[in-house]
Here is the input.
Amino acid sequence: MLRRTRTALISRVSANVIRWRNPNRPQFACPICDYHGTFLDVFAETGSRSHVECPKCHALERHRLQWLVLRELQKECDLAELRVLHVAPEQFFESRLRGRCGSYLTTDLVAKGVDRREDLTALSFGDGSFDLVYASHVLEHIPNDEAAIREIRRVLSPRGIAILPVPVVSDVTVEYGAPNPYEVFHVRAPGLDYFMKYENVFNRVRVFESSGFDEKFQVWIHEDRSGWPTDRMPQRRKMMGLKHSDYVPVCYVS
Here is the structure.
């Protein structure tokens, strides 16, 4: 608790410093925690991104987009009636979802603090055990991702839905052949064509993207990708532009 409090305080101070240095810096609204103000920049091994992190709940661009998609999906289904399997759960999502779903189970192959240790390519659950499987930025870490997709489909009920976003960081998907430690051990750089793997398994795939939501939520990826590839990311393909769409594919069994 003390560590989380200290982290939140540092984030608020950082946001205030950014605002002081540039009073004209845009302000946004976080749909997850209702914060309003500047978002923090992030400097990662893959490069720097602007307007990324909410200083209150620490959600990133992809998390805000996924939360907005979850809100949209609740117009067609009630979370309180769904059996949910959350793979590699983010803490702030878990704390908001666990009490709102009919049943809620978390899983990961190696992470601590989950309900079950499971290999996504060989799940121990029976057919049709869940109504919703949520696995965000997971499949780009799994060499045999097609087996994982088939397993997700298998454990879903006839009314089941899978939310399976991956980082779209290429014009076409590039398979690495081995995990890259400088990309948090990604084994591929997904492109939009990656979603064809879902279409081969599910009856229907609906793709939500950044442009479909209000700019005030800042769900775009502000990142300069023109310097790719690099020594540490030799298989990344150059992408022009400083503002890139993010995507959330929702896969339907029926």
Observations:
- The mean pLDDT is 92.
- The CA atoms of residues 27 and 51 lie 9 Å apart.
- The chain has one domain: 2-252.
